[in-house]
Amino acid sequence: MTALIEMRHIDKRFPGVHALRDVRFDLVAGEVHALMGENGAGKSTLMKILSGVYHRDGGTVTLDGQDVSFASPKAAQDAGIGIIHQELSLMNDLSVAQNIFIGREPRVLGIMVDDAQMVRQARALFDAMNVPIDPETPVHRLSIAKQQMVEIAKALSFQSRVLVMDEPTAALNDREIDELFRIIAKLRASGTGIIYISHKMDEIRRISDRITVMRDGQTIGTRTTADTTLDEIITMMVGRDLGQDTASIPDLSAAPIALEVRNLRRGREIRDVSFSLRKGEILGFAGLMGAGRTEVARAIFGADPLEGGEILVHGAAVGIRTPADAVRAGIGYLSEDRKHFGLALPMSVRDNISLTSLHQFTRAGGVLDDAALARTASDQIRALDIRTPSDRQEVRLLSGGNQQKIVIAKWLLRDCDVLIFDEPTRGIDVGAKSEIYKLLSALAAEGRAIIVISSELPEILRLSHRIAVMCEGRLTGFLPGGVATQEQIMELATRTAPSHRHDSPPRPEVRV
Amino acid sequence: MTEATTPAQPAGQAEPVSFFATATAQRLLAFASLVIMLIGFSLASPNFMQSSNMIAILQAASVNGVLAIAVTLVIITGGIDLSVGTMMTFCAVITGVVLTNLGMPLWVGVFAAIGTGALCGFASGTFVARLMIPPFIATLGMMLMLKGLSLVTSGARPIYFNDTPGFDQISRGSVVGQVFPAFPLPNGVLILFAVALVVAFILNRTVLGRYTYALGSNEEAVRLSGVNTAAWKTAIYTLSGAIVGIAGLLIASRLNSAQPALGLGYELEAIAAVVIGGTSLSGGRGTVLGSLIGALIMAVLANGLRVMSVAQEWQTVVTGMIIILAVYADQLRRRKTG
């Protein structure tokens, strides 16, 4: 078979992060090639380079043996590379057909849109896919799964020879997944090359011909699916250092309970969640995307409302309705999205570090004690080894790892008893990651109660004293730290409630 | 970690430059334009540089300057205030009612003006921060309500302050002139400078000021830091309103009357001064000094063109051009620094 696409020695740097180095990847016509790796391994970056979203800093890409370099997503699309993003990129108020043909609507007399023709073509696409969607429906009326199908139809309408699918089944139920796989098989038979990104091992096994694994911005290897084992793939994904740090689980059975939540609920996102957390404990929260982990954390912190449930700190019920209430109760939350929810990017390191605790630096009349602020900022910079030229540096100019340390410093100053870390190492270099791990362990050893939410299973396994697993808004089980395995976690993370159906249209649940 | 810091290093070394660019360069740019205008006009007309004309310019800048400072606070939080013009008038009218119709002593009038402004600001702040109404809409509503209330309260007739001796001295008198007869700087200008100093201190050195910038930089991050953002935002609007009250006093004193039909249009002049002074309408950055210079540029322009006998209509055209030029220069600078 001839290679449709060959990527060689691909290199990409972002400020503060070497995202890809010496990556190779190839795709032949008529195959499904799975791309696997933990979050942050570089899969999405590689696909964005292929589809013209990013420009590579080094290496070559060939399409049919010709060197190519796409200046824009449009150029890649015109060359026959279609990508279906994980986040849907549809215009909600437009109809299905309008979405599919946006920017290239069939015309009448060169100026008027030929709506009838457009709807006809869209209908033909859906007929070919064997999916019952009315092209004239506004997109916002469709379920997420149907919207996903619209994205796929749109990619197909470009006659793409290469189709990139990034976690296409994340929102699909079993029947819809079968339908999708049938479509993929049909495309493969017609000679389309498909790059399939997924975390779900069973799907990969079912649909893919070859598997390439990436880790820390590098290609680890490519295997033929039929000749490899699950263990081999997992070992390739997580590397060999897995498990070496998971030894020290302290005995906390005598430690007092710092945080207890009872029967938290909100619609379909949080369904009757109860757990408790001891002083000095690190409780890891695992689950697939959308399992409700962040929702639970934000609700405990008062960032989003709850419909019911109780929160107890040190055994006493606390009414938390705003983040200010939570902080007063001694709970801190470090968001998964530092840039949007954690930092004031145009402000200085010093200003950001003091944002949670300005009241500690106030003299009469609300005047700030600048000398004390400067002193504290430099103390924190030294203590957490934040690499910054000065405490007056704007935080937007620092690397992800250093930004994360600033967020942590901000919360350390506030002296919270309970700290919730949501994806604490997302977008951070390997080196900075282990520093953050050490910091979290040290905080627990100091007697703080810590929740770590992470989508990286090795991270959960390495850090947690105990692991809580969620699926579809429910806590599906707890696992002891140190001995739990990725497979046990995945089993709980996919344990859906039997009565729950995926494809029913979202509607607010009325339960009081 | 060495690898992570290497790419960040150039940015680090550029720190003094980028600090200059963001905080100081725009002010320098505005200040330089002001100086160039002063030189240009004095070359074009010998009458321009006379001290009496300089004082007239400062006097003319005082009301707009105070309003601009008030709006600056709101704009740094990422908001906008369209109501400051009619709010100023409403404060003046209430002062008229208190002093002329009720015959209260002068100091009560002063507190009435500032208190009314603070109350109006508190209302705007509540609409924006608690009821989550976009600032543009909330203050548009306030603008119309206050315009109507001014007319209703005053019976649509001007209220004169002839019964309150000394009221006109608030703006037109000159404490400085009593000491230096050669330079009778009006009190209104002194008040402008005093307001500027106080607000600059609040913005730079107090918790309220720190939160003002933080709210404009990333309100959600501030909320998730456990800060009661609604309360602080309301406080900022309230402070802004109190400063508008001072502007109300200044204009009433200068005219020795409260003119209920006046006011509309002042808000746009104030916003123009803020923008010329380099404050970003998207929030998070801006300075009192910039807005002060912006107000001075507008006053110099109006005065200079008048001295050069350019028709009033054309002065407006030129002011419009200056606003676009000022923001374009800011864009150019930002593109360069990234």
Task: Give a description of the structure.
The complex is a heterodimer of chains A (512) and B (338). Chain A is an alpha/beta fold. Chain A has three domains: 1-80 and 160-240, Rossmann fold; 90-158, no CATH class; 257-330 and 417-424 and 446-497, Rossmann fold (3-Layer(aba) Sandwich). In chain A, the strands form six sheets. Chain A has a six-stranded mixed beta sheet, with helices on both faces. In chain A, strands 18-21-22-15-23-24 form a six-stranded mixed beta sheet, sandwiched between helices. A four-stranded antiparallel beta sheet of chain A has the order 2-1-4-5, with helices on one face. The longest helix of chain A has 16 residues, at 174-189. Chain B is mostly helical. Chain B has a single domain (45-337), classed as ABC transporter involved in vitamin B12 uptake, BtuC (Orthogonal Bundle), CATH 1.10.3470. Helices cover 77% and strands 1% of the residues of chain B. Chain B has a two-stranded antiparallel sheet. Chain B is globular, with a radius of gyration of 21 Å. The two termini of chain B are 25 Å apart. Residues 1-23 of chain B have low confidence and may be disordered. Chain A binds chain B through residues 13-18, 301, 303, 322-324, 326-328, 332-333, 335, 340-347, 351, 354-356, 358-359, 362, 365-368, 370, 387-390, 392-394, 397-399, 401-402, 410, 414, 429, 431-432, 435, and chain B through 1, 3-5, 7-8, 11-13, 15, 18-19, 22, 205-208, 210-211, 213-214, 217-218, 220-228, 284-285.
